[in-house]
Structure formats: structure tokens, C-alpha cells
Amino acid sequence: QVQLVESGGGLVQAGGSLRLSCAASGRTFSTYTMGWFRQAPGKEREFVAAISWTDGNTYYADSVKGRFTIYRDNAKNTVYLQMNILKPEDTAVYYCATEESLSPSVTTIADVYHYWGQGTQVTVSS
User: Fold this and answer.
1) What is the percent of the chain with per-residue pLDDT over 90, rounded to a whole number?
2) CB atoms < 10 A from the CB of 88, how many?
3) Residue 73 phi/psi, 5° resolution?
């Protein structure tokens, strides 16, 4: 059984930084893609970033490029999302998700991910 546990959310002022963690267990994830999505109140869930566990390729939403960095620690089966220069519009519940053998063309689509974490709240004050 795949389990994803997020941590690291909180309240931060605009311009500040947070690092989210997603600890994965239950499988060998060498062929999986790990993604981060977020959902603000009244809005649909949107793609933030993803990383291929196979080759380390990364993918970012335009809104976070240059500010957020996704990376993995293979030994810990953990994926991180380093978020810098945070803006109030980054406020949302952040979810990590994973799926096996994803084509790069679909990594931004929430519906293709089968496994999801419980989410962690990120609030950025102005």
C-alpha cells in the first residue's frame, strides 16, 4: 500500500520561504513520478511541480518557475518542495501525489495520479 505523508506547511509572510516534504512508503519508487499540486479555496486543484524518480527530470508550473524547486532524496524516499519568494497567491493546501511510469506529457494532470497525501496548509500573509 502506497502511503504519502506531507509535512512542512505553515504561515509565512510574503517574500519568505518554506520547505515541504513528502515521505513515500509501500513501494519501490524507481519508476514513479512524484508531483506537487495545490488547491486554494473555491479553486480547482492545480499542478505545481513534478519530478521523475527514474531520471530526475523536473517540471514546473509557470507561476512557480524560478521560485520553487523540487528535488528528491532517494535514500529517504522523500521528495521536497523548496518554496522561496512566497506570494499571497501561493496560499493553498498542498498535496503530493505519485503514479508509476508517467509520460512527461501528462505529469501536470491531477487525474492521472492514483496515490495522494493528506495535504498540508500553506498560508502566505501580505
Assistant:
1) 89
2) 11
3) -120, 105
Cell output for 33: 513520478
Cα separation of 122 and 86, whole Å? 10
Contacts of 94 (CB under 8 A, 6+ apart): 6, 9, 20, 36, 37, 38, 48, 81, 119, 120, 121, 122
| Confidence check: pLDDT of 85 > 90 | yes
- Counting DSSP H helices and E strands in the chain, the numbers are 0, 11
48 touches 95 (CB < 8 A): no
Average pLDDT over residues 98-110: 93
Report d(CA 55, CA 73) in Å as an integer: 13
Q: Is the pLDDT of residue 54 over 90?
A: no
Distance from C-alpha of 82 to C-alpha of 78, rounded to nearest angstrom: 13
Averaged pLDDT of the chain:
96
C-alpha triplet 34, 39, 41: angle, nearest 5°: 170
According to the model, what pLDDT value does residue 84 have? 98
